[in-house]
Design a protein that fits this description.
Elements lengths: L6 E5 L6 H11 L4 E5 L2 H10 L4 E5 L7 H10 L6 E5 L4 H9 L4 E4 L5 H34 L3 E8 L2 E7 L3 H5 L3 H6 L3 H5 L5 H12 L7 E6 L5 E12 L5 E10 L1 H15 L9 H18 L2 E9 L2 H8 L1 H18 L5 E6 L2 E9 L2 H16 L2 E3 L2 E3 L3 E8 L6 H17 L5 E3 L4 H18 L5 E10 L5 E12 L3 E3 L1 H11 L2 H21 L6 E5 L2 H5 L3 H12 L6 E6 H4 L4 H12 L3 E7 L16 E4 L1 H9 L4 H13 L3 E4 L5 H10 L3 E2 L8 E2 H11 L2
Parallel strand pairs: 1-2, 1-3, 3-4, 4-5, 16-17, 19-21, 21-22, 22-23, 23-24, 24-25, 25-26
Antiparallel strand pairs: 6-7, 6-10, 8-9, 9-10, 11-13, 11-16, 12-13, 14-15, 18-19, 18-26, 18-27, 19-20
Helix pairs in contact: 1-5, 12-13, 13-14, 15-16, 16-17, 18-20, 23-25
The chain binds ligand C2E and magnesium ion (2 copies).
Ligand C2E binds next to β19, α17, α18 and β23.
């Protein structure tokens, strides 16, 4: 405020000493504008309406009601300092007037201009200071209000917390109010998550020692019982001697950010479908477990599990059912192991389990058996019951490897051995198993040349009509006469041929060879013999399958009705338009179509009715089960009756005993195939077989 140009009001009767005051003012404050008001009410109205920097009131003028007058003035919101003019020359009386609301007092008759000038200067400075404080208080208040985060302040004496203040923002973050914090000095610390208390204590001790710690991110328990993450930033406040007397802090809630971070971290280490650890996290756990096992002289095991024939389920019922099943299996696996073991899903239908602490091999066998039994209990999914088996490979530390890669690789090799042993079993790793893997590479290399070198040959297995007892057909089954390894069976190279695409030229060669053979037999005087040829998935989805078949028929010049193509459920059950179109096209050229290995997949008979099939081949495992568990007789009878209803012939594969034969006959089965009659035979032996059986 500039003292030049001040507005000053003097209120009082002109008869009193006020003219003298005015005089002194003109000398002491030469630039001021002075207004006189003889009437108290008018003075009040002026004070209210105009902005004065200072006003003088004659005490005599107020008739002893000075206190009330000041109260009225202040009540009107007037902040200008007021000076009372009194006739009593006493410090005590003056002090009483100041207590009643005046900023200062002057004694009548003692209006020296120098005193007046000093009084005015003093009052003006006070006023500036007061308004500056008010301004900064106001700004501070607005600042605090604008912080929606939560601010707090802690008072310290002799290194101990004596009280604390938590700003209104605390309620949103913690659920407790400022008042509740004020009433309970330990409330704050009790709220800190137990696991984070040491870090919070460390932060406070740093502050009490006068250091500013880095912001701490920690958890608190909200009043609602839930966990919240906060970022806690605090700075110490020291007195002039450098003693910490308080610290001020700011808290911001970061729960959402923490959750997002956790999600990202979780996704990097866990499988999205089952929420089981992925391969990376598993490897990490194996590494940790190895350190412990080494220190305590204990064993650990890595178990690789692969669900048997799971591809069938995915292909016939779709991935939704497949995924549900994978999830159900994962839950069951977790229930079979202890808490400190790890069930991981690296992908597909494979699981890997780490047993972190084992006494030895027997423990691993025990759990492997437990897992097999638990999966056998059946899964209810989408209104259907599934029975799963699994092939398990196990490697042990220290016997089979000392690092995670070797242990997993060796358990994997053992798992492949379990598959080769007919699935649904478990195998411990043995060094010879890697020879199997080498064999695969070796075969793949040889397979490419085998076709040109004419190393493949076809064996034929008779199909016997159950009513007439006659041989009515033969299934063509390919063999590979390997120059070093001897005779190889299809399971050893067909999957490899599929993988490499070699199945396309190999499959065409088989078709042509089988058709030529059919022509030769037709030219002998045997009754017509239908030749069945297996098609693989890759051949079937290859777009030129009908052309390939027609080419073989034309080359051999046989009637298409002599040829039957064997398809599997996974090839025909996906219901795709293109599949049905291919089947109809094949049917339209006059060849027969049969569904091989029925009973291993999950297709229902009702879905068969739209397909142009002529034969259903019951899988040998199914045939086997029929006689082992005769209570299945009703189901088997129903399948056969339904097939007949759909105009399908039923052929039973893998008939090995007369028991099975008679049982199948009783069920009304049409045709059988199996070692009971003959193994697959080279063409010449098949001719001999027919000479003995057909006529
Ligand atoms: P598949 O079509 O189900 O063939 C029947 C298999 O059961 C043959 O095995 C046969 O030797 C065997 N078998 C027949 N009777 C009995 C029996 O009484 N007991 C037992 N235990 N087994 C019996 P193989 O020849 O090893 O063929 C296996 C599979 O390889 C075939 O199963 C078929 O899926 C596939 N395959 C065979 N030849 C070809 C081919 O030329 N092309 C394609 N794509 N796949 C083929
Ligand atoms: Mg077959
Ligand atoms: Mg079969």
């Amino acid at each position: 405020m500039n003292r030049a140009g001040q507005h000053i009001l003097i209120s009082g009767k002109p008869s009193t000493a006020l003219p003298l005051l005015e005089e002194a003012l003109r000398i002491g404050a030469p630039h001021a504008t002075i207004t006189r008001s003889p009437d108290l009410d008018e003075a009040l109205a002026r004070i209210d309406a105009e902005r004065y920097d200072l006003f003088f009131v004659d005490a005599a003028h107020t008739n002893g009601g000075f206190r009330d007058l000041m109260a009225r003035i202040r009540h009107q919101g007037v902040e200008a300092p007021g000076v009372v003019v009194t006739g009593v020359d006493s410090d005590v009386a003056g002090a009483a007037l100041v207590r009643e609301g005046a900023q200062d007092y002057l004694v009548r008759g003692r209006f020296e201009p120098a005193l007046i000038s000093r009084t005015i200067r003093h009052l003006t400075e006070c006023r500036c200071l007061a308004s500056a404080v008010a301004l900064s208080e106001d700004r501070f208040k607005r600042l605090l209000d604008s912080i929606t985060d939560y601010a707090y302040s802690v008072i310290i004496q002799n290194g101990k917390v004596v009280s604390s203040w938590h700003g209104p923002g605390c309620a949103a973050v913690t659920g407790y109010t400022t008042e509740e914090y004020a009433a309970d000095p330990y409330l704050w610390f009790r709220m800190v998550h137990e696991a984070d208390r040491p870090a919070v204590l460390e932060m406070s001790s740093q502050i009490i020692a006068g250091r500013t710690p880095p912001p701490l991110e920690h958890r608190i328990i909200h009043r609602d019982g839930g966990i919240r993450w906060i970022k806690n930033t605090a700075v110490p406040q020291c007195d002039r001697d450098g003693n910490v007397v308080a610290y001020d802090g700011l808290v911001s809630e970061i729960t959402a950010r923490k959750q997002a971070e956790q999600k990202v971290r979780h996704a990097a280490h866990y499988d999205g479908l089952t929420d089981l650890p992925n391969r990376e996290l598993l490897c990490d756990r194996i590494r940790q477990a190895l350190v412990r096992a080494l220190r305590h002289g204990r064993a650990l095991a890595v178990m690789v599990l692969d669900l048997d024939r799971f591809k069938n389920i995915n292909e016939t019922l779709g991935h939704t059912v497949g995924n549900q099943l994978i999830r159900a299996v994962s839950e069951r696996l977790v229930r079979c192991v202890r808490e400190d073991d790890t069930v991981a899903r690296p992908g597909g239908d494979e699981f890997i389990i780490l047993f972190a602490d084992l006494a030895g091999e027997q423990d691993a066998s025990f759990v492997a058996r437990k897992i097999q039994e638990s999966l056998l209990k059946g899964f209810q999914i989408a209104g259907q019951e599934f029975f799963l088996t699994t092939s398990i490979g196990i490697s042990l530390f220290p016997a089979h490897g000392a690092d995670e890669d070797t242990l997993i690789k060796n358990a994997d090799a053992a798992m492949y051995r379990a598959k080769a042993e007919g699935r649904n079993n478990f195998q411990f790793y043995a060094p010879a198993m890697h020879a199997d893997a080498h064999k695969k590479l070796f075969l793949e290399h040889n397979l490419r040349k085998a076709l040109d070198r004419e190393e493949f040959t076809i064996h034929y297995q008779p199909l016997i009509d159950l009513v007439t007892g006659r041989t009515t057909g033969a299934e063509a089954l390919v063999r590979w006469q390997h120059p070093e390894l001897g005779l190889l069976f299809p399971m050893e190279f067909i999957p490899l041929a599929e993988e490499t695409g070699l199945i396309i030229p190999l499959g065409e060669w088989i078709l042509q060879k089988a058709c030529m053979q059919a022509r030769q037999w037709r030219e002998s005087d045997f009754p017509p013999l239908r030749i069945s040829v297996n098609l693989s998935m890759r051949q079937f989805t290859h777009n030129a399958i009908t052309d390939t078949v027609l080419r073989a028929i034309n080359m051999a010049q046989i009637h298409p009705g002599l040829l039957e193509l064997e398809l599997t459920e996974s090839m025909v059950m996906n219901n795709a338009e293109s599949t049905i179109a291919s089947l109809r096209e094949l049917k339209s050229i006059g060849v027969h179509l049969s569904l091989d290995d029925f009973g291993t997949g999950y297709s229902s008979l009702s879905r068969l009715k739209d397909l142009p099939l002529s034969t259903l081949k019951l899988d040998q495992s199914f045939v086997n089960a029929i006689t082992r568990d005769r209570s299945n007789a009703a189901i088997s009878r129903a399948i056969i009756a339904l097939s007949h209803n759909l105009d399908l012939r039923v052929t039973a594969e893998g008939v090995e005993t007369t028991d099975q034969l008679e049982f199948l006959r009783g069920l009304g089965c049409d045709e059988v195939q199996g070692y009971l009659f003959s193994r697959p035979l080279p063409a010449a032996d098949m001719t001999a077989f027919m000479q003995n059986h057909v006529r």
